[in-house]
Amino acid sequence: MRRFPKRPGDQRGSVTVFVALLLPTLMVMVFLTLNIGQLVFEKIRLQNTADACALSAAAVQAAGLNEIAEVNFWSKDYVYTIAKTVMELSMSIPWENQSTANSAVNYYKDVFKNLRNYQKEANTYYADKAMTIAKAVKKANLDSIGIKNVTIESINPKSSLNKPGKLMEYETKTKTQSYSYVASQSEPPLCPIVVALNWSDAMAGDKKHFGTHMGATPTATCGLAQATGTAQFEYKISKKKTPMTYAAFKLVQESKDFVVAGSVFGSMKQMTAYAAAMPTGGNVEDGKPKYKPVLVRLAKLQPKPDVSDLDDVLH
Fold first, then answer.
1. What's the whole-number mean pLDDT along residues 77-105?
2. Percentage of the residues of the chain whose pLDDT score is greater than 70
3. CA 59, CA 54: separation in Å to the nearest integer?
4. Nearest to 48 by CA among 159, 147, 154, 142
């Protein structure tokens, strides 16, 4: 069998050696790429979940403010208009007595009281539901797919997950309305005396000779003394400018192993995501239920859980 002589400098097979030497480095680069991809993906997922929590909570807050604003609209534009009309009408047609007037006034006061109580309950109910929906969103996006090493915390200093607080601080606004009633129906001389002409057919006589005027005789009667009173109606509430209504959350994903080669690269560092959203566009005092949720970017602050008040950085 003929053999070919080996040429000087022949390097056949050297590539195999080179690849064998380079393979560990290539594998490390592949693993590093996968791990970086995992890191970026989980960071994006964490931030998206934080945004979803904040936006969902703000949507519930917006619904609550819309409910309160709607009640304000009916209270100030309808109930108060009716109460005002009735009170003003009593100035020309007074109520029978003070007891009747008090009953009418108290009736409208009770109506306004019930409206204010409804708004008070909504103020805490929707604040609680905002925190509930935030926890539910976090659970649906993370816990339910097996990611259980993430914690959520409200970084609004006035509303924690377990103590939601209130949607807003507000003050009640009142209006004073005058009314009138009959103050006296007693017998003379304990009441104002009014002289009236009363007609009597028996005393009129023959119309042919005396005329019809002869049947009119003066009579002293007890006049009706009219008295006035005032009533204050809590006809609407006004939302205070501070503190503002918003939802802000901090999500923390604890350290965990990388997908591949954890023994080589160690564990991923703890990751943190912040998000804030707030309801805007409506007006509680004017009775305009047009609130909708919007995300608020916390670009400049890098917020921390011990921030005393986020109101200054939400715009």
1. 91
2. 67
3. 9
4. 142
pLDDT (tens digit, 9 = 90+) per residue, 253-280? 988 776 655 555 567 788 899 999 999 9
Helix 98-141 vs helix 14-74: angle between axes, to the nearest 10 degrees?
Answer: 170
Residue 196 contacts residue 221 (beta carbons within 8 Å): yes
Alpha helices by DSSP H, listed for the chain, are 14-74, 80-90, 98-141, 201-204, 207-210, 262-265
Whether the CB-CB separation of 289 and 73 falls below 8 Å is answered with yes
Angle between helices 80-90 and 98-141 (to 10 degrees): 170
CA dihedral 107, 109, 113, 119 (to 10 degrees): 110
Q: What is the pLDDT of residue 247?
A: 92
* Residues 69, 121: Cα–Cα separation, whole Å: 14
Within 10 A of 162 (CB to CB), how many other CB atoms are there? 7
| Alpha-carbon distances, residue 226 vs 96, 191, 194 (angstroms) | 10, 11, 14
Contacts of 47 (CB under 8 A, 6+ apart): 273, 275
49 vs 148: CA distance, rounded Å: 13
DSSP string, 177-218: EEEEEEEE---TTSS-EEEEEEE-HHHH--HHHH-GGGGEEE
ω before 189 within 30° of 0 (cis)?
Answer: yes
Q: What is the largest CA-CA distance in the chain?
A: 175
Residues paired with residue 175 on neighbouring β-strands, in sequence order: 233
Domain boundaries, the chain: 36-185+224-313
| DSSP class per residue in 22-41 | HHHHHHHHHHHHHHHHHHHH
